[in-house]
């Protein structure tokens, strides 16, 4: 059950949001601007690349890898962009104070055997204390790779960047709230990630990609993303009523369901993968994400199984006291459809628009078949599309909305 009353009570939302996740998301636009300004000050604007690298490898964990997937979606097939997730884990060493280190401090990375002088390694970390990333930078330096490091100033990784002649770019952390009281974590060495850290990873990565010719973004694309995130924060603010707040509406729709996050195209696919990760981290909810058309065959069994059939809510003999509400499937279809997302652009509506079922706009056969599959099994399908012509802005549109929705769902479910 979802506590609908909490979503319409800004004071209760603020009390429930003990780690200030909503505040972090509201400041995402400011972090983009700060990251751009600090990247220029660090020397990115003076970079004169000698051609494009053969491959770009992006190493890190959490939203750093999500940023790599988003860069790959924006760059297309003309560039080889590879994510380097951690390959191993060892018990991290405790510090001098005896504090228990984070699990990520013991992660290890391995450079692919083919990486060499023609390739670029980008290392991105919100903590900068992972010795595995320091070792990875040393591996890349020995192989002759070009190296860029995004890490907090003064961290071990930032210091190592200077030793391996990497371009150091600062990681912009969120400003802690003055009234923030530390919340005891159930798993202290596995803390929840800052929900807005994605933009501190993605902004310098995109600025670098723009500089070396990996993407063909307009010159003002990144500053415009900051404005877009600010606008989303206003629309999805806690004191906006649920019927006018699209993130609260989406959270209420996903309550009590098993979400299937389907996406058409690489832009929407990256947003769907991000949403699944945020639902797990922020709302404690499992979700399955996948791209059309292959997701139709991959998820077919979900519709023919018990979740697809569900329990008849009109069954007179069903025990409504002892029996919990049954879980049902909910398909959320994300799309990037320039100029075709309902009438959002014409009506002046900002952000992704919910596309009505009877919308007469053009649809691919995969989208049409998805609607038919859901309708045949009485599964609700909700479609959101961004009509923005620029791919980066459409991506920011979808990610900003779903990030807020994941946080709202987590807060309301925990309060229930």
Helix content: 40-55%
Written as H for each helix and E for each strand, in order along the chain, the element string is HHHHEHEEEEHEHEHHHEHEHHHEHEHEH
Strand order of the largest sheet: 2-1-5-6-7
* Share of β-strand residues: 5-15%
Our measurement of the CA-to-CA distance between the termini, rounded to an integer number of angstroms, reads 7 Å
Alpha-carbon Rg, integer: 22 Å
Please summarize the sheet with the most strands. 5 strands, parallel
Q: Which stretches of 5+ consecutive residues score pLDDT under 50?
A: none
Shape from CA axes? globular
Q: Quick one: how many beta strands?
A: 12
Give the mean pLDDT: 89
With helices defined by DSSP (H or I, 4 residues minimum), what is the helix count?
Answer: 17
| Secondary-structure class | alpha/beta
Summarize the structure.
With 416 residues, the protein is α/β, with parallel strands linked by helices.
